[in-house]
Amino acid sequence: MTITTIPDDQVRRPLAALPFWISLTMIPVVWTGALLGGLWVIATPVYAWVIYGLLDLLAGQDERNADPLMDRSGLGWYRAITLVWAPVQFVTLFALIWYVTRADHLSPLEMWGLFFGMGVVSGTIGINYSHELMHQRQRIDRWMSDILLAMVLYSHFRSEHLLVHHRYVATPRDPATARYNEGFHRFFPRVLRQSPVSAWRAEAAMLARRGLPPAHRSNPFWRYGLLQLVMLGLALAIGGWIGLVLFLVQAFTAIWQLELVNYVEHYGLTRRYLGDGKYEPVRPHHSWNSAHRMSNWLLINLQRHSDHHYKPDRPFPLLQTYSDAEAPQLPTGYSAMTAAAMIPPLWRRMMNPKVRAWRRQHYPDITDWSAYKTASNPAPR
Question: Which residue range or ranges hold the Fatty acid desaturase domain (predicted)?
Fold first, then answer.
């Protein structure tokens, strides 16, 4: 991999930001399925998974980096797509509920398929954009993040991600770090159980340090709950009980999509235990990296995940890609990797040799990996 630097003036050009707006093409695909019915209802997952998986193979990798220290004031066109997406998704989701519950050409199975596809959109794009927004300091960014998460009933993700995942990634205390040989079908129910609890405990601990009780009005869980109730009420008011069920289908699908990506991003990677409840600092080699061009455009550089964990406050246009020596590389983009994760024997065949090679490369002195494999090292302090 030969990494080059993009001149600052090229990064600032509006046309340079345009490829990251490709997520908007998902909206007409969703509506095509709603209008035509039949097999068209699965057009969205086919577009997101199959088409982008193929495009990754054809377009190859983008091995260029922007200067991470460049003036961020010239990145407005990049930020704009993340702010625009929340109202776009809101209108699409609830207009779709209104339309489908009044259409007579869609069977119950076609409705399910259509809202499964909508969940692919709100999970692949919506939660991903929420993830970018929650890392920003502006109030409007964080509100848009909360609104996007409320649309999929996963609002606690903001607390869990910022207060738990980034601090404890690749340690036994992080629910979202998939363990070596842990198949996705075991990982998914585990993270669904553990993440809300760890998020609540993290917020309660922050309040306790201020001398406040967990139920204090400043606990964001009050906002999370209210926003989620608003979304559920809208779905019920617009589409009745059928609309509510369809809303829940898309929400569950979006959560499944998110946790599939979480599974891929850190599978089998661990930080060295230093003793006395301490772990080494987070480095680029503690996350899987992917420089595949097309899926990084769709996912606003989420696959440059090694750098995101190394420098969490870095906006997506400035995220760096790394060489094989600096960070472990996925065989291809998330579109194909998440599909492989659904088939544990295939996943282990693809990824376990890479994890073992990663251990030999970065930790040749560690000979007993049993505690790391089972996440039975002491929890970090």
Answer: 114-338
Specify if 308 maps to a domain: no
pLDDT digits (tens, 9 = 90+) for 196-253: 999 999 999 999 999 999 999 999 999 999 999 999 999 999 999 999 999 999 999 9
pLDDT tens-digit map of 151-186: 999 999 999 999 999 999 999 999 999 999 999 999
- Residue 260 in domain: yes
The 10s digit of each residue's pLDDT in 258-293 is 999 999 999 999 999 999 999 999 999 999 999 999
In a domain, 373, yes or no: no
Residue 359 CA to residue 190 CA, distance in Å, equals 25
At residue 329, the 3 state secondary structure works out as strand
List the one residue out of 291, 310, 311, 313 whose CA is nearest residue 3.
291
The residue type found at 159 is: S
Helix %, strand %, coil % for the chain, to 5? 65, 5, 30
Domain membership flag for residue 103: yes
Can you tell me the distance from the alpha carbon of 318 to that of 132, in angstroms, rounded to the nearest whole number?
A: 12
H or E stretch including 198? helix 184-209
Domain of 121 in residue numbering reads as 13-58+72-281+335-355
Closest alpha carbon to 162 in 193, 132, 197:
132
Structural domains in the chain (count): 1
Q: 């406050």: which residue's tokens?
A: 313
Q: What angle do CA 114, 144, 309 make, to 5 degrees?
A: 95
Beta strands in the chain (DSSP E): 4-6, 64-66, 273-275, 278-279
